Amino acid sequence: ARVVMACRDITRAEQAAEEIQRTTGNGNVVVRHLNLASLFSVREFVKEFLATEERLDILINNAGVMMCPKWITEDGYETQLAVNHLGHFLLTNLLLDLLKSSAPSRVITVSSIAHVGGIIDFEDMFFDKRPYSSVVSYKQSKLANVLFSRELSRRMKGTGVTSYCLHPGVIKTELIRHWHPVLQTILSFPNYLFMKTPWQGAQTTIYCAVTEGLESKSGCYFSDCAEKEPAPEGKDDEVARRLWEESARLVGLN
Fold first, then answer.
1. Which has the closest alpha carbon to 146: 240, 26, 81, 6?
2. What is the 3-state secondary structure (H, E, C) of 23-40?
3. Is 138 a catalytic residue?
4. I want to staple 85 with a disulfide (CB 3.0 to 4.6 A). Which of 7, 10, 48, 144 is the partner?
5. C-alpha dihedral over 188, 190, 195, 197, to 10 degrees?
6. From the candidates 138, 164, 207, 221, which is the catalytic residue?
7. In this predicted model, which residue has the larger pLDDT, 99 or 63?
8. Angle CA(245)–CA(247)–CA(252) in degrees, nearest 5?
9. Rounded CA gap, 202 and 171, in Å?
10. How far, in Å, CA of 175 to CA of 204, rounded?
């Protein structure tokens, strides 16, 4: 299979690509630059991708930031919602025609169990009016992932493009680097023993990407390689439609 790795840090991405090539024997792994915090970067990536690739069978929306300080992107948006949701939203939409022409194809969006209790605050999505909370912001962004995947599935019915979202588990990665040092220390003992390795954490994503006969589960939520029930707020179709429309406005889609 041809694999295109869309990454912000090209140096680290190339190191990972070399390891993949070495351990799998698949030399058809390429690296492209993509910074999901920049809508310009998303558009530039898609422009290059469409110019060089003939098909797209599986799109995995996997990038994310977690509980970072209140940083504002070059587009003027709070970073967690911008990276975790808006960047993926624009990326997916700009690639939809290619996904349709490559059908059957799949879009997999990595969410989190943190969507439970999340709220899409349409009156203040970027914490311009209320005090910023990294936890509340993260939960909002992960709920947005679930709702986006659900609404994408609804909109793609009959096209051969299916959509899935998932909770990968709590994984030993650098995702918690923005947590308070005390929280990181608490997490290390003994919870660290029960965290998944990156290999283990990737399994549900892989399951959604390649398991045969999953088309009837489009729009569903998965965890530990099985369908799971999302939180009630993750099944609100009216909020999902409104979020899609607002996201399209924010990223400049017609």
1. 240
2. HHCCCCEEEEECCCCCHH
3. yes
4. 144
5. 70
6. 138
7. 99
8. 100
9. 9
10. 18
